[in-house]
Amino acid sequence: MTARAKLHGDELIAQRHLPARPERVWVAFTSPDGIAAFWGGSHATVPTGSVTVDLRPGGEFALDTCAPDGATRRLRFVYARIDAPRELVFDEPVTGLRTTVTVRPADGGTDLVIHQRRLPPELRTARAVDGLASILDALAAHLRHSPITPEEIAMTRPTQRELVADYFAGFRTTDHRRILATLTDDVEWVIHGHRTTRGKAEFDSEIENPAFTGSPELDVQHVHEAGAVVVATGEGRGTSVDHGPFRFAFNDLFTFRDGLIARVDSYVVPLP
Question: Are the CB atoms for 168 and 161 separated by under 8 Å?
Answer without folding.
Answer: no
